[in-house]
Amino acid sequence: MIKFFVLYVLLFCSMIVSAQQRISVSSPNGKLKFSLKIEPEKITYDVDYKKCPIVTNSLLGFSFDNGDFGHNIKTGKVRRKSIDETYELIIGKVSVARNYCNEVIIPLQEKSVPTRLVNLIVRAFNDGVAFRYEFPEQEGWDSYVMYDEKTQFNLNGNPMTLLMYLPGYVNTHENVYNRVKYDDIAGKKLIEMPVTFQFEDNTCVSITEAAIRDYAGMYLMKEKDKLVGKLSPHPGQEKIKVEISTFPHRTPWRVISIAERVGALLESNILTSLNEPCAIEDTSWIKPCRTTFTWWNGNVVPDSTFSPGNNFDTNKYYIDFAARNGLDAHGIYGYAETPWYYDENFNFGHSGPDADVTKPIPCLDMPRIAEYAKSKGVGIHLWVNWRPLYDKLDEAFTLYEKWGVKGLMVDFMDRNDQEMICIQEDILKCAAKHRLFIQFHGSSKPSGLVRTYPNEFTREGALNYEVCKWDNAVNADHDISIPFTRMLAGATDYHLGGFRALPRSQFKIQYVNPYVMSTRCHMMAMYVVLENHLTSLCDTPMAYEGQPGFEVLRTVPGTWDEIRVPLAKINEYVTVARRNGSDWWVGTLNNSTARTLQLKLDFLDEGDYEATIYTDAADVDENANHLNKEVRKVIRTDVLNLPLAMDGGSVLHITKLQ
């Protein structure tokens, strides 16, 4: 009887084991492992780092109009390969990146009718794992209506979390960041990605998505102690998230970046590695741009013989400023609530049904402005609301190319549903045909698409310095959250350039000629710390010319060859070193606590260098625009003291001596 019982138990256990199937893939260095578990009723995955669980027992699957997918599944032949390649980025935080990972493709097919087949593709990098779903061509299923993607991210333990809550699917993608324990994340609230976690052993994790194309963007939401992916629904309803009419089709990559130090998250190129190669044949015209943006300062002009506004003379004043200081372009948006083009609504955010982005308002004299700018060697950077632009996309871009426009700020998109994601790619494609760069404002986060369409220079998706015109929410404590969250997704449009700083205790809100509440050095360092291929100078010519530090804004590059993050502590400080050619630029941001950091220069090669060092002056608590400037010789074994004031920062420009 005992023998029979033992045999029964062994048989029962073997049946359970046989009912489960496990498939795994590890990173090239063996530290990261993705494991898939297929059971009769569900499919789940785990992610381990250095043999410690990071993500556990997290569900995969879909809900379609013709039934759920994710149970009663069998696997086909698993395919594996290693990928090790380098690729060039036309613009980016590096010029040459390495795509180095192990890949597994797992066919998942239903055992019973309708026997749908979905391939799960997993890539394990040394700095993260990513997975996506592929819908191959197959008999009996060549389209779908998706109600939900059931992807979960169940974090192990109770890590510290840095996240942004959003009020709903239609939103500006702007809010302050909260730092809470994982267990204390609010339930039933949309969470913007990237979201960053730090475990007790300092392992850092970031969750976001890559290659969002013909699909809905994803948020996260805490449900029953698990983070669940939430896709943006089609406009006007809540049920349908994605509709696809032909196969093959692929979802975006779900990306879990993992590193033993937080600075490595900033250095990672995993998002661009997960995107397709460049789709633009001739990229010779794609170069970073340095532009004015007069909306921020209120289109201010000095005492003059002309009236400020939508006219030739106001724009001539800024074009002359751009020409004097080597800027590439002058930004034109309009004046007050009147766009530069015809719009009966007189409202930037809500264009009228007859708004026409091919018809400049008569008082502007746009052809004359374009001709004058061309004579001064200055391009034009146009603001437009996305809706009237999309109505006349090719016609408008043909006209803008004729005017000599370099690029556009496309604004008030405020959605990331499938329709809007497709609209954005249509804009990028058409803009490339007319040699125009695109700055998506009022938009969702980037997803590494800059590799495929390098004319996507930057995106907003962050609460930024425009808020200083009406609120005090954007300060150094908010700024320091951005590198550890939003910037992990890519270039960040942040309305940089405020050169009239007040100490935080003296800050006052002004819509015209606004102030900022961090030191001059902090504001300058933002240009180095943040990735942004459109260098914006939002303040007035009077705020810049003759001012200490203006030379940094005039010369800091807009694209880079290499990045290092030698110093970083979440929400306290960060130092980012970026190389362009043989020059290094090093920016440090501090939060609201004064401190001194020791910066090792071991990222330099051997040889002698000259460093121009900008640091906070001793009296910045009274005059936040004061700074110290020092020029000295340095070598790679040097260690520099960086005194950082409350709300302060520092900038180094290091050049190789011959």
TrEMBL record:
Which cofactors, if any, are listed as required? Ca(2+)
Q: Does the keyword NADP apply?
A: no
Q: Which residues form the Glycosyl-hydrolase 97 N-terminal domain?
A: 25-277
Q: Which GO terms describe its molecular function?
A: carbohydrate binding; hydrolase activity, acting on glycosyl bonds
InterPro entries assigned to the protein according to its UniProt record, in alphabetical order: Aldolase_TIM, GH, GH-type_carb-bd, GH97_C, GH97_catalytic, GH97_N, Glyco_hydro_b, Glycosyl_hydrolase_97
For this UniProt record, give its keywords in alphabetical order, as a comma-separated list.
Calcium, Glycosidase, Hydrolase, Signal
Q: Which residues form the Glycosyl-hydrolase 97 C-terminal oligomerisation domain?
A: 559-654
Keyword S-adenosyl-L-methionine belongs to the record: no
One Pfam family cited in the UniProt record for this chain: GH97_N
Q: What residue stretches are annotated with the Glycosyl-hydrolase 97 catalytic domain? A: 295-462
What residue ranges carry the coiled-coil annotation?
Answer: none
Give start-end of the signal peptide. 1-19
Complex and partners: Monomer.
Per its record, how is this protein called by name? Glycoside hydrolase 97
Source organism per UniProt: Bacteroides oleiciplenus YIT 12058
